[in-house]
Amino acid sequence: MINLAAFGYGLAALAFLLLTAIGLHQWRAWRHFTLFAIANLLTACWALASSLEALSLGNPASSSLFLETLRNVAWLGFLLHILETRRPEEEKRPAFLTFLIIGGLGLPMLLVTDMAIMMGSDTLPRLIPGLRHTLWLLTSLTGLVLVEQVYRGARPEGRWALKFLSLGLGALFAYDFYSYTHLVLFHSLDDEIWQARGFAVALIAPLLGLAASRQDTKSTNLALSRRLVFHGTTLIGAGAYLLVMAAAGYYLRTRGGDWGHVLQTVFLFAALMLLAVVLFSGTLRARLRVFLNKHFFSLHYDYREEWLKFTRLLSEGQPGERLCERAVEALAGLVESPGGAIWLKEADGDFRRVAYWNMSDLEGDALGDASLVDWLKSQQWVINLDEYRVNPQRYESLELPPWLHNHRDAWLVVPLLIHDEILGFVVLKHSLGNIVFNWEVSDLLKTASRQAAIHLAQMQVNNALVVARQFESFNRTTTFVIHDLKNLVAQLSLLLSNAAKHKHNPEFQEDMLTTVESSVTRMNKVLAQLRRASEQSGNQIVDLIKLLPEVIESKRAFKLKPELLAECNQAFVRADPSQLSRVIGHVLQNALEATLEQGHVTLKVACNVERVSLDITDDGAGMTDDFVRDRLFRPFDSTKGAGMGIGAYECREYVRSLGGQVQVDSAPGKGTRFSIQLPAANENTQTMGVAA
């Protein structure tokens, strides 16, 4: 049988906890709110202690009586504060009000002291039970008088705001007065009155909440935020669940015989574990939030809360740090989606995946003139992939790429637009909360995506500006180098002009040789840096099978010798032989430097009619995903002390200029695979000449 007293007091505790939470959100501007919140919290603590005592003892004990006295102190102090602040400062305090202050605070404080002595010591003097009961009765009577004074002393236009406050507190003290009257007359507490008291106090909480909502605050309406409704509903549901489980555990304890305590312990532990699983379930939380928004609010979203959360997520962290991933997470949060990925337009006009959030398995590129990109740019719609798969006629002329159409977790495609130009798009997973895609969801996503696109465009502009400034610095350095070369030329010219006069002088000859040797050494160092710019030549047909041995030979200074594996006899590509040799050599040198002498570095060539693939694989130190994504191809960012940090960047940009792609797969401690894929040369042009 359910312990009704415990259930009633537990319900009262939940009601006043919820009232306190609502007050913290809605009524903090009320000048009496602090005392109101303290009184509510103490009432909740008293009700909770009474519920626990009802379960264990079946009657009130010292802890609940002590908290009840503190509760009375708080409510009486709250009423006295209202009376005191209403009195004009220049007016003398009436004697009756002074008497009420002494009675309203003195009597409860005397009871608090008595209860503290009773719980802490058996030797100190304490009140006799009859006197203690009388003081409890007088305390409730003082409360009734104060309630009457607060209401009667208010102006007629102000009684509208105090009506429910007076009814609620008047009912609280009236029930206490009735209980204490029985205690004083019969020297015992009526069990039925005590058991029903929790339900009576729980019914008072809505009256106090309605009264507080009528006070002079920023909002006179009882308007609950969606977050508060969600957490309040969760709290009430969890509290009701715990009360039912506690009652069931108590039943097992009383009916289980010798195994009662064990059964109760195991049952309560299992109940708590089940509650934890439910509370930590993202799917259940999402569906509860959608249910509340759908049935308790006219619109699905609280736009203020959603926009603040969205903006905070986009702007947190360092500027540009993981912005693409955070943009996906922010858009996914609007529809309770657990993941997504983002594609951005790059310099060659194609759209490539640049980041993902819990959706690493969705990969693919979209060409700049693809149907998906053209449709998003012209229609500026959010594409519902579920609807497209069922009714493709609704999306006229739209043809999705296979990698997107066949991915069953993909749900929405959200365009990223700036001034009617498409910057990219985001693909989101299906919603955990089973959100129905409608006009409200579509409008919110389109608006939010434009905000995200502004942040992403600003990130791209900042990155381009940083690169431009670094190239400017590099060009300035080149100017200094040229100045050094001019000085060297001037020095050699002077030496040559003096040679006719002093060429037979042994000392001049020795100085001349030393100067020339020093100048040659310095010029070779300068020319090694500038040769790249001076060795420009036109693209031609290059046989990669013949070019790679020369690249390998150029790295003969390393003790580790790379291994060449060719799956085809010829691999023709169209490129500048010297520049292609340089970029492959850079990748090969990085692999050799990252690998121990006993390791392995392999160059593997594969080809078909359309593509030629070169994989440079090593089993060296490897790189993290974050390093590959954020730093490997960033110009002027090098982990080598003497490196300039433009080798990998130059390699990727040159391969892209040839119509190819560069992919990197690496893991710390497992090595790296650097894959260069180039278009195969047209067979009709191979007769024009082949460069080795």
Write the layout of secondary structure elements.
Elements: H1 4-26, H2 33-56, H3 62-86, H4 95-120, H5 129-152, H6 159-186, H7 191-213, H8 226-255, H9 260-279, H10 282-296, H11 303-315, H12 323-334, E1 340-345, E2 351-357, H13 371-379, E3 383-384, H14 385-390, H15 402-405, E4 410-418, E5 421-429, H16 439-502, H17 506-534, E6 540-543, H18 544-553, E7 563-566, E8 572-575, H19 577-593, E9 601-607, E10 611-618, H20 625-630, H21 647-657, E11 661-667, E12 671-679, E13 690-691
Parallel strand pairs: 6-13, 7-9
Antiparallel strand pairs: 1-2, 1-5, 3-4, 4-5, 6-8, 9-10, 10-12, 11-12
Helix pairs in contact: 1-2, 1-7, 1-8, 2-3, 3-4, 3-5, 4-5, 5-6, 6-7, 8-9, 11-12, 12-16, 16-17, 18-19, 19-21
Give a description of the structure:
There is one protein chain. The chain is built from 21 helices and 13 strands. With 692 residues, the chain is of the alpha+beta class. The protein has 5 domains: 4-223, Rhopdopsin 7-helix transmembrane proteins (Up-down Bundle); 225-280; 303-464, 2-Layer Sandwich (Beta-Lactamase); 466-534; 540-691, Histidine kinase-like ATPase, C-terminal domain (Heat Shock Protein 90, 2-Layer Sandwich). The strands form 3 sheets. The chain has a 5-stranded antiparallel β-sheet. It has a 5-stranded mixed β-sheet with strand order 7-9-10-12-11, with helices on one face. A hairpin with a 2-residue loop joins strand 4 (410-418) and strand 5. Helix 3 (62-86) packs antiparallel against helix 4 (95-120), helix 8 packs antiparallel against helix 9 and helix 19 (577-593) packs across helix 21 (647-657). The chain is elongated. The N and C termini lie far apart (93 Å). Mean pLDDT is 76; it is low at 121-126, 217-224 and 685-690.
